[in-house]
Design a protein that fits this description.
Layout lengths: L1 H4 L8 H11 L4 H4 L4 H24 L7 H6 L10 E2 L1 H21 L5 H14 L3 E2 L2 H25 L2 H18 L2 H17 L5 H8 L8 H17 L3 H16 L14 H16 L6 H13 L5 H15 L4 H15 L5 H14 L6 H15 L1
Parallel strand pairs: 1-2
Amino acid sequence: MSKLERGIHRWPNPVYRSAFRAVLGVESDAELGFYCPRAIGEEDDVHRRSFLGLGTAVASGVVLSGSVSEFLARAESPTPVPQWVGRPEVAHVTQSAATFSEWEHLYGGGLSREAVGGQLRWAAGLLEARCRTSVVRRELHAAVGNLAEVAGWMSYDAGAHDSADRYFRFGLYCAERAEDQSLRATILSDMARQAVSLRREDAIELAELAQVRDDRLTARERSMLHVVRARALAREGRIGECLAAIERADEHFAHSVTETPPWMEYYDAAEMRGDSGHALFDLVHHGYDPHPAIHRLDFAVHHHTPKYARSKTLSLIKSITLQINDDPGVAAHRGLEALTQAQDLRSQRVRNYLRDLYAATKPHARYGDVTDLRHQIAKTLQR
C-alpha cells in the first residue's frame, strides 16, 4: 500500500483497482490516476517506429504516389465559410484582391491565376452566408466582384480567355448586386479590351456600354473608358473617332484627382499614355503617323514604377516594333533590354507582342544587331 501511496507502483492488480473504484465511486482507472507504464512505453515505441518509418519514406520519395500535383490535390480540404459575414470578411476579400493585383502587375497573370481562382471560390461562398446588414451585403458583393475582376484579368493576360470571360461575367453580376457603377464600368472595359485583343466585333459595343451613366464616375475613370473606346475604334481603322476619344481621355485625366477606387489605382499618367499609345499603334496599320504612338509609349516606359513591370514591358515592345523601321540599330539595342525584362514575366500578352516584334524585324534581318535580337527573341519564345 505504501508503494502505491508513494507512486512507486502505478498499476496495481485488478482486485486492488476494482476495490479502489468501488470505495472512491469512480468508473475508470484513469480517474484514480493509475496507468500502465509498459503499455505507454509500448505505445510510444509504436509511434516512434511509425515516425522513423515515415521519415525514411519521405526521404526516399516512396510516400508519394502518382504525380506531385495529384498528391498535393488529395491534401486539399475546403476552408469553411462562416454562417455570418461582417466587415472583417469583406476586408479579407478586399485585401486578397489587392495582393493578387499587385502580383499580377509585377509578374503577369500566369504566375498566380489558379491561386486567385481558389480564393475566389471561397469568397463566392460568402455570398451564401448571412450578412450583418444590407450595407455589408453590398460591400461584400463589391469586394467579391473586385476579386473576380482581378481573376478575369489574370486569366486574360495568361491567354485563358474562356476562364477570363467566366470571371468577368461573375464580377459583373456582383457589381450589379452591389449597385456599384464604378466596378461595373471597369469590368465592362476589361471585357472590351479582351474583345479588342481577340478582334471580336463586340469590342466597341462593350466599350460604349461601359460608358453608360459615366456621370457617376470620377474623371480618371472616364479617361480610362475613353481610352478603351479609342482602342476599339483603332482596330476598326476609324482614325478620326479614335483621335477624338484620345483627346477626351487627355482632358478628363487632366482634371482627375488622386482619390480613386482600389481597382483604378493602376491608371496613372504612365498607364494613360501607354494605353493611348497602344491605340495609336493600331492606327499605324491604317496609314497613321507612327511617331505620336512612339512618343506616348516611351513616356509610359520612362514613367512606370517598378511595381508595374508588365505594363512597362508591353509599352517598350510596342515602341520598339514601330521604331525598328526608323532606326534598326537603336531599336535592336532596346529590344535586348525588353527581353531582359520579359524573362521575369508570365504573360501570354508579352509573348504575343514579342512575336509581333520578331515579324517586324524580318525586313531588317541583314543588320548584325537585328540578327542577334531575332535570335534572342526566338530563344525566349522557345523557353
